[in-house]
Amino acid sequence: MNMTDKISRSEYERFKHFLEQACGITLGEGKQYLIVSRLTRLLREEKIASFTELLTAIERHNPRHIRDAVVDAMTTNETSWFRDSSPFEILENVVFPEIDKKGKHQCRIWSSACSSGQEPYTISITLSEYLKSSQTPNGGLANSQIVATDISASMLAEAKQAEYEEAILGRGLSQQRKQQFFQHTGGRWKVVEEIKRRVRFSEQNLLLPYAPLGKFDIIFCRNVLIYFAVDRKTDILNRMAQALNPGGYLFLGASETITGYSDAFDMVRSPPYGVFYRLRS
Ligand SMILES: C[S@@+](CC[C@H](N)C(=O)[O-])C[C@H]1O[C@@H](n2cnc3c(N)ncnc32)[C@H](O)[C@@H]1O
User: Fold this and answer.
1) Ligand 1 center to 101 CA (angstroms)
2) Which of 94, 97, 128, 164 is the most buried (most CB within 10 A)?
3) pLDDT of 131-145, one tens digit each?
């Protein structure tokens, strides 16, 4: 029996529907192997006899932890430090200086699919570096708050712990930053307080309302929209526009674009660093 045969056509259709409704992820045709390879262990651990039984549990939200475990297993949590470098170069050389000039009271930044924390901590490191190199940083940037959210409770727990193995640090972090912004304790590397204290974590499904999070000056929404259908992307981007203060900034992943999904933003080319989006006035 191959992997695809372990799940029936109707079970696959029910999984597709569940995932789209629960977290926006669209599974294309022929992805049965993904369900089988990612959920077989859960069946065994939870002593669930079949995919049909699992589907009944997640569709009835009962028990809740099984539903969360399925979403966790089916989402991709791939991330790294200074991923794609461009957004962080733009922050340091374009966005932070602009916000600095505006003399705002507080700068609020949202890392909206933060996975295990590398993205919000990278933003915080970039801000610390900017504040140290800037001649006249105003109070607003120094008072910045980074709100980091994700749908996955297990990813958020890792992120909050703020401790990483050597091999994880190796993915995108220079030796100099490692020494400056991490402490080596008990075989792991701990994010220093200066970087950690700006970041607050909370659970947020991107399909649900953003109003409880408040307004932001900068939003990072990277490497998550690629998994969503067109109408979901449009809805999320338009609601992110409403969550931004006037003139606010949006960063997407390197393979993501706004073109065709939302006209609430202007694309700004910022050579030599790359592209970002600014809320249209
Ligand atoms: C590939 S990671 C991207 C991490 C980081 N933004 C980066 O670019 O390195 C995608 C993250 O999106 C989260 N995610 C998937 N669907 C989501 C949803 N509906 N709401 C919030 N987060 C979601 C996943 O849990 C995962 O941590």
Assistant:
1) 32
2) 164
3) 999 876 667 898 999
